[in-house]
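Side project, low priority. Logging it here so it doesn't get lost.
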Amino acid sequence: MKILIGEIAHETNTFSNVKTDEQSFRLWGWDVGEEILTKHRGVRNAIGGMIDQAEKLEIDILPTFTTFAYPAGIITTEAFNALRDELIGRVKEAKGYDAVVLSLHGAGVAEPTEDFEGTLLTEIRAIIGNDIPLIVTLDLHANMTEKMVEAADVIIGNHLYPHTDSFENGMEAVELAKKIVEGTLKPTMYLSLLPMIIPTSTTNLSPAKDVNELCYQWEASENVVDCTFYHGFPYTNISNIGVGVLVTTNDNAELAQQIAEEVSDFIWKMRHDFIVKKPNPKEGIELALKQEGRPIILNETSDNPGGGTPGDGTFLLRQLIDSNLESACFGYIYDPETVRKVSKAGVGATVNIVLGGKTDSLHGEPIETEAYVKSITDGRFIQTSPMEKGTHVNLGLSVRVQCNGIDVIICSVKSQTLDEQVFLLHGIDVRDYKIVGLKSSQHFRAGFEPICKGIITVDSPGLTTLDFSSFNYSNLKTKLFPLHEVSYRGIKVEI
């Protein structure tokens, strides 16, 4: 048996003023052929799982094309065409494969199409025909569409957020491809879409945890292949966003629909539990100082680069610097201009800097401060978080400075902080600090929960704020809770 594998992944925040061009993808990898196997073998991501399972089952792999861009604004037409041509061109060239297994995201938006994945899968289906199985892994923040479901034979998504199960999803995708080819599986999918959007919700806590437990119960049933709760990606101004439930059975359409609707009803009953209000940075610091032990993590959810924000927001960092704290660090803020100035001054120098706030004013104004230079690095490390462990990370030229007693890491490449490696690279052991500030919504939990004494999420204006009322959703096809009064299955529900 021979399978074709590939990946294109982007989570598009259309509210961002920074468009995603081809270079944004090339920055993180534009890999073809055998270099895909070299780069991803042993890495805990979806492609790594596909490679691992295929090799265990002695299935031949035809690697095509893989790329990823960090979340940002809409994908340009030029980038869309380059991505499509690269992947589809290699699919056309491939010969003798029995199945196609792809890792996509599900929240991609490009200038030519707001359903990036649905459009791509439809084109691939037209090339490979109806007899070749097409299996897809998606992120749980996918905005699911019928177009995706119609084009694919099986779609499976993360159950977990942080996404520590991507590797297992890749393995499962290959296993399902094998079963379809062998004729032991006839996948039947049913998609249920709910008129609601939810904030970023970690799955090790209620209410998302409760929904997953119901999904797991159904997955243990005979003939149920998969039951996934898709949170959707709310930070995008397109017609189709929101929560979805996708159920796959072995040739039982009625059962798939029954399960999807039952899980959807369960989510709807818990809808108010998803809507939360978090403290602002000043309140978060006050709460952290009252908690026992160290470190206490303050995660700035409103400027989460993993959701398409600029990563140079200053609300939390400014409050840390102004609070005259005795034991606090921040890792990290994206500001290549300041990195260049600080690195030129050299270790041991004291320089005046204008830090952050360079992309827009929404995430805070620049911080004018004096900085003592403590270290300069190349920004390279190997990720140790259970999420995508083994990934080689390159944040470019990076520095550690001290501003009013706060240790601050500044990097040249935008990313959310997933584990302590960027701190260790700059000589910081987070266990020595009372307060550790970072930019992330939930993914950081996989790396930091085992080593911290507490987590306090802080919110403020930003492109990933938990306050949806700050966004202008001008393209919605239907009304959505909690933005509007909506009808769900014939019942009108007030906000």
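Brief comment: The chain has 15 helices and 21 strands.
Revisit when time allows.
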